[in-house]
Structures are given as structure tokens and as C-alpha cells.
Design brief:
The protein has about 210 residues and is an alpha+beta fold. It contains five helices and nine strands. The strands form two sheets. Strands 3-2-1-4-7-9-8 form a seven-stranded mixed β-sheet, with helices on both faces. The chain has a two-stranded antiparallel ribbon with strand order 5-6. α2 packs across α3. It is globular and about 45 Å long. The protein starts with 13 loop residues before the first helix and ends in a 12-residue tail after the last helix.
Length: about 210
């Protein structure tokens, strides 16, 4: 599923990673799923959680999983991806080895954060994740707080809240990513499945085994 998670060399450019529509899976006969991830940090470790679901408006996850990451990198301002990306890669490696997900193709990954940062649209966590996956999987960033210089077109309001979510994307047109997030299940600002992955990462909920595909 995630062979060769080694970033390619050279700077990340937005033209390298944006396209009008999501990339198609190289395994067309397998169920196509979306993976939402979140990471919760402790003193010297972190828990990365993932929920797998079939459609953006699904109310329930197909499966969920957590991985504990030790020896996490220190936080460096402006280089958050150096701390979080290795955790997400560990989760992807673990999911690839699960028999319950061997027949599933992940066609999009949603992260808690940004793909592109600020008015300059510098590469954020999501852009670095897509690079690590050799641009094979679209990545959608769903951030809860505003990064300085984030353009107004990133804003998505849900549930009647005055506080927007901030959406960015690579491998998917921004208009499609914004529509997908706006249509996610839940009547509040934070979609239900994103609340679930946050609870999983915090240890407030136990992961659930994959449901039957039949």
C-alpha cells in the first residue's frame, strides 16, 4: 500500500502537487477509502490515530487504529512537519500490514493542519506528506486555527459557527476539498469523524476493527 516512503529530492512546488481532481488508485478493483489522521503529544511520545471511511459524508468509520510513537522530534517553529510527519508515516506503515485492510485502497488523506501555509503558500505538513507518498495520494488539510496570511478562500463554516475551519489541498482542487469538508457528517463546526480521530489520539476512545466489506 505504501511502498517506498522516501521523499523525493528537491524543493516542493505547488505546481508539483496540485491537480484538478484526485489521483486514481492503481488498484481499481479494491474499495476506495479516505483516511483522517490526528496526533496527540505527550512528554516524550505521541499517539497517532487514523479513521478510515468510504465517503466524505459518512457518519461512521469503516475502521480505526492508533500507534504509539516514541522518541519524537522536538518542536521547531515553522518546521512542524519534522515532528508530525514521522508519526503519520508510522501509522501508514502499520495500516499497510493489517490483514483487515489488505483489500482497501486509500485514495485521500485528511490531516489536522495545513497543506500550504500563509499568503506565500509555503509547503506545510500536508505538502510534505504528499511528497513522502510520491504524489500518489491527494492530501486535504483541515485546520482549526488560522495561520497568519491564510487566504479567505480557505475558510469553511459549518454548523452555524462564526469560527471557520481552514481547508487546503494538494492533488485535489481546493473547491472540491472545501465542498467535501463542508459536507462531512455532523451538525457542529468540527465534523463527527474528525472528533472521533481526535478522541482516539487522546486515548478517550478505543480503536475499532474493520467492518466487513460484504
Amino acid at each position: 500500500m505504501w511502498e517506498g516512503l522516501e521523499p523525493r529530492r528537491g524543493p516542493i512546488r505547488r505546481s508539483d502537487t496540485s491537480s484538478a481532481c484526485p489521483a486514481q488508485s492503481s488498484r481499481p478493483n479494491e474499495p476506495h477509502m479516505i483516511l483522517a489522521v490526528d496526533v496527540h503529544y505527550r512528554d516524550t511520545s505521541a499517539t497517532v490515530a487514523g479513521v478510515v471511511f468510504a465517503q466524505w459524508d459518512d457518519a461512521q468509520a469503516f475502521a480505526s487504529h492508533t500507534v504509539t510513537c516514541d522518541d519524537i522530534a522536538n518542536y521547531v517553529p515553522g518546521e512542524f512537519y519534522r515532528r508530525e510527519l514521522p508519526c503519520i508515516v508510522q501509522l501508514l506503515d502499520r495500516l499497510a500490514k493489517l490483514d483487515s485492510l489488505k483489500d482497501v485502497a486509500i485514495d485521500c488523506i485528511a490531516i489536522d493542519g495545513y497543506v500550504w501555509l500563509g499568503a506565500e503558500q509555503r509547503p506545510g505538513l500536508g505538502a510534505h506528506l504528499r511528497e513522502a507518498l510520491h504524489d500518489r495520494v491527494p492530501v486535504v488539510g483541515i485546520a482549526k486555527t488560522c495561520y497568519a496570511g491564510t487566504p479567505a478562500e480557505a475558510e469553511v463554516r459549518r454548523g452555524g459557527s462564526d469560527r471557520p475551519l481552514y481547508v487546503s489541498a494538494a492533488g485535489m482542487a481546493l473547491v472540491d476539498a472545501r465542498a467535501a469538508v463542508a459536507g462531512m457528517s455532523g451538525s457542529h463546526r468540527i465534523p463527527d469523524l474528525l472528533k472521533q480521530v481526535d478522541r482516539l489520539a487522546r486515548g478517550l476512545e478505543e480503536p475499532a476493527a474493520a467492518k466487513s466489506l460484504r
